[in-house]
Amino acid sequence: MESGQLKIEWARQYMPVLSAISERFKKEKPFAGKVIGMALHVEAKTANLVKTLVDGGATVHITGCNPLSTQDDVAKALDKVPGVYCYASRGCSVDEYYKAIDTVLDAKPVITIDDGMDLIHRLHTARQDILPGVIGGCEETTTGIHRLRAMASEGKLKFPVIAVNDTPMKHFFDNVHGTGESALTAIMATTNSLIAGKWIVVAGFGYCGRGLARKAAALGAKVIVTEIDPRYALEAYMDGFHVMSMKEAAPVGDIFITTTGNRDVITGEHMACMKSGAILSNAGHFNIEIDGTWLTAHARSVEERDGIQSYWIGDKVIHLLAEGRLVNLAVPKGMGHPIEVMDLSFAIQALSAEYIALHHSGLKPAVHDVPDEIDRAVASLKLSSLGISIDVLSKDQKEYMESWDHGT
Question: Rounded CA gap, 34 and 140, in Å?
Fold first, then answer.
């Protein structure tokens, strides 16, 4: 068996929720006759989501959502699955990246699944010819949801999109545990650097930032959190972390991890006052959180290692991981989120896509929450796979919780 197929099979054995959904999809075929277009990180867990959709009767055309996150052996194996057409390749140029997205759209998908909204953006700009046939989509990540809500607020979103990122099962597990563990794992594997005793600067204290900060602290790090929201900053402080501006944190930090999904989080002003040997990484989204162009412009020389670019500026060196792209996926040793976490996130994706297929006619062009019953169903399936049972409200308890006139 080839390496890509081995990776897919390895992941499958730790994805019981998605496997249970696949078995139902095989019987019910909710996507029969439908084409699904996808732009996601093409690796083993994603491959199992694709195969689940195919089990449901779909034909899937997929490409990557990040030029450095594709695992070529997995893409090759996925392209051999009947009903799947994969166009992703690692290290593609910007032109090749958008050509692959156009190739996905050439298949005239009726449902889209995105990570970062590049597919939907292309549909609404350069490929509006495809728009009339699209019944809805799903978006995986925070950055994509921000972009979609901005589009919807301007009245420019032309079909309903399910905000998979914004549901509790995504926030509490994918963002906190998935990003928290995988980003630190990738940093440690790439740099062989000790976390304990280091000053770790986490930019942003949303769900991803919280996960990173808490897990870094558990490894013995001294954690600094930078924030723009006073409420999140106060929460970080109450959780025991140091809170300061990035300008204050810059000369202190040993390892920097951005998690904001915004641009210019670490700029030249910050890098100019960092200590020699500082390590910079991004766990947010696009490679604009850290100003790599400033590093290139001011470096007298650059050294390349596996997943590390070392910029010599004067008599100090600053190390940038994964060219500023997602560190947990884009470094050579990056494996993305743990399998068990993505089992939950991709189960929500699969069920949200099914919801679009079944209920699109009643949904307005807007960003929609994941239906609560889907979120609860995924949690219940996971608990069942773990052999865990929980309590159920009695009739009297339910009545009490729903009533307004029961006092002491």
Answer: 20
Q: Is 357 annotated as a binding residue?
A: no
Q: Provide the CATH topology of domain 3-170+337-385.
A: Rossmann fold (3.40.50)
Provide the residue ranges of all domains of the chain, joining segments of one domain with +.
Answer: 3-170+337-385, 176-330
**Does the annotation list 206 as a binding residue?**
yes
pLDDT (tens, 9 = 90+) of the chain, 408 residues, equals 799 999 999 999 999 999 999 999 999 999 999 999 999 999 999 999 999 999 999 999 999 998 888 999 999 999 999 999 999 999 999 999 999 999 999 999 999 999 989 999 999 999 999 999 999 999 988 888 989 999 999 999 999 999 998 888 888 898 899 999 999 999 999 999 999 999 999 999 999 999 999 999 999 999 999 999 999 999 999 999 999 999 999 999 999 999 998 999 999 999 999 999 999 999 998 899 999 999 999 999 999 999 999 999 999 999 999 999 999 988 988 888 999 999 999 999 999 999 999 999 999 999 999 999 999 999 999 999 999 999 999 999 998 998 888 766
Q: Kindly state which CATH superfamily the domain 176-330 is placed in.
A: NAD(P)-binding Rossmann-like Domain (3.40.50.720)
Question: Is 177 annotated for ligand binding?
Answer: no
334 is in an annotated binding site: no
Q: Which residues contact 89 (CB under 8 A, 6 or more apart)?
A: 64, 70, 72, 75, 96, 100
Q: Determine if residue 48 is labeled as part of a ligand binding site.
A: no
Q: What is the pTM of this model?
A: 0.87
267 is in an annotated binding site: no
Judge whether 296 is annotated as a binding position. no
> Interior CA angle at 75 toward 72 and 76, to 5°?
85
Tell whether residue 270 is among the known ligand binding residues. Answer: no
Residue 283 counted as an annotated binding residue: yes
Check whether 322 is labelled as a binding-site residue: no
